[in-house]
Amino acid sequence: MNESLDLSTRRWGMSCHLSGLLAILICSFAPIPFLGALFPYIAWRLGRDRHPFIDEQGREAINFQLSMSIYLLVAVISWIFLAFTTCMVAISGAGSTQNSMGNAFSWLMILGFVAISTFAAFMIAVISFAAVKANRGQSYRYPFNLRFLQ
C-alpha cells in the first residue's frame, strides 16, 4: 500500500474505476455507445484537482471505457456482417438442407451470447482489479487500452 496517499485520495481513485461498473449496469438495459465513459468522466472531473493520483487514475478509467466501447462497436458490426452474409448464403440456396438458415442463426445467437458474456466478465474483472489497486494507492494501467487522454 502507498502510505503517502490519504484515504480520501485513494477512494477517489477507486471511484473513478468503479463508476465504470455502474456504466456497464446501465448499458445492459439501454445500450448507448460510449455511455460507459460518462460516469468515470464525472468522477474524474470532480476529483482531478485534488491530487495527481486521482487525475491519473481517472484518465486511465476513461481511456479504458472509450477503448472498450470502440472494441464492442467493431465486434457488433462484425457480428451483423456475419449474420447478413450467413442469411444471404442461406437464401441463395447454397445450404444443403432446408433448415440451414435456422441452424446458422442459432449458432450466431449462441456466438453472440458467449462473446458478450465473455466481454462483460472481462470488463468486470479488470475494473474490479483496478479499483482494488487504486484503493491500495497503486497506479494501474489497463490492458488493451488506447490512450485518448494523456
Describe the structure.
The chain is mainly alpha-helical. The protein contains four helices and no strands. Helix 1 (7-29) runs antiparallel to helix 2 (38-47) and helix 1 packs parallel to helix 3 (52-91). It is elongated.
Radius of gyration: 20 Å
Helix content: over 70%
Shape: elongated
Order of helices and strands: HHHH
Our count of helices gives 4
Strand content: under 5%
Give a count of the beta strands, DSSP E runs of length 2 or more. 0
- Which secondary-structure class do the elements indicate? mainly alpha
**Average pLDDT for all residues:** 84
The number of distinct structural domains comes to: 1
- Distance N to C terminus: 25 Å
> In this structure, how is the largest beta sheet organized?
none
Query: Poorly predicted ranges (pLDDT <50, ≥5 residues)?
Result: none
